[in-house]
Design goal:
It is found in: Cell membrane. InterPro entries: ABC_transporter_permease, MetI-like, MetI-like_sf. It is a multi-pass membrane protein. By secondary structure, the chain is mainly alpha-helical. The chain has a single domain, classed as MetI-like (MetI-like fold). It is built from 14 helices and no strands.
Length: 318
């Protein structure tokens, strides 16, 4: 029979091919990528998408989670934030101003200092791996540990810093956590020390991806160290700059623990940041609807800043 002849000679039936010349994907192959993405998609939907949608729903109600009734108020919680002299308008925008100041003070050193550290740690010298670990080590600590540590160091009355300043004959009564501008120094300084290791590692990874042949060509052309940095290193790190600047802005704008533990909002509420006020409004005052509205206003502000940052760096790249 014909089929027996095919089996004896080892000839196989032709494989169906698509118009592009490749084999037609099977049903299992079509869904394989989605199976690999499924765990992340499930976590994203459960812990990000659903809470985000539910948060919008909460912001449209007078939501006290201890009471059964949660009246619908529509956009009242949002309008209240933009109504002068309302209950939440002034303290909320004061906390937003404090957040903006902290971001403005902390982002430049967190962008520049880690770059300098990465340039040094990218060189070949003895003990390089040890110093890489030392600079990154503080980043693995939690914000509670960092806050308590620096609260003890910067305490105006019994802190270690004022003690050693007095031992050196310097002023030893600096109100690090109770007065301005020292309060901002007490927030920005520990934050830079704590988180610069992460940005340094990102910069270091970017530096190792820059083609060494570009430096060799620049040396042949007579470029000095500064010119090589400006015309080779900086263009090679442009995508890294975009990532570092964007993530640093977002992280600084979401500050909470340092303000809550180190300065405790002092003096007065000058260093009380937006996340702290939102948490206070929602969890202590039981105004979850108003707190949710504040959260989305803050999220919108951060989204606009991020888009502006992307547009600015992409414009420079072009």
């Amino acid at each position: 029979m014909a089929t027996q002849g095919v089996e004896r000679t080892g000839v196989q039936p032709p494989v169906a091919r698509s118009a592009g010349g490749g084999r037609k994907p099977t049903d299992a192959g079509t869904f394989t990528p989605y199976l690999f993405m499924a765990p992340y998609l499930v976590l994203f939907v459960v812990f990000v998408l659903v809470p985000a949608v539910f948060g919008i729903w909460i912001s449209l109600h007078n939501w006290d989670y201890l009471l059964p009734g949660k009246p619908w108020v529509g956009l009242e919680n949002y309008l209240d934030l933009f109504t002068p002299n309302s209950a939440n308008s002034t303290p909320f925008w004061n906390s937003m101003e404090a957040t903006a100041k902290f971001t403005l003070f902390s982002v430049p050193p967190l962008v520049v200092i880690p770059l300098l550290v990465a340039l040094i740690l990218n060189q070949s010298f003895r003990g390089r791996n040890f110093f890489r670990a030392v600079y990154f080590a503080p980043y693995v600590l939690g914000v509670a540990v960092i806050g308590i540590l620096w609260r003890f160091i910067l305490d105006p009355n019994n802190g270690l810093l004022n003690y050693y300043l007095g031992a050196l004959g310097l002023p030893d009564s600096i109100p690090w956590t109770t007065s301005l501008p020292w309060g901002w120094v007490a927030l920005v300084g520990p934050t830079v020390w704590w988180t610069m290791g992460f940005n340094a590692v990102i910069y270091l990874t970017g530096l190792q991806d820059v083609d060494p042949a570009l430096y060799d060509a620049a040396k042949v052309d007579g470029a000095n160290r500064w010119q090589r940095f400006r015309h080779v290193t900086v263009p090679g790190l442009r995508p890294v700059f975009l990532f570092v600047v964007t993530t640093t802005i977002l992280a600084s704008a979401n500050v909470f623990g340092q303000s809550y533990i180190i300065t405790q909002g002092a003096p007065g509420n000058e260093t009380r940041v937006a996340i702290w006020y939102i948490a206070q409004e929602g969890l202590r005052s039981f105004n979850m609807g108003s707190a949710a509205a504040m959260s989305y206003v803050l999220a919108l502000a951060l989204a606009l800043v991020s888009l502006a940052n992307f547009a600015l760096l992409r414009y420079k790249e072009d």
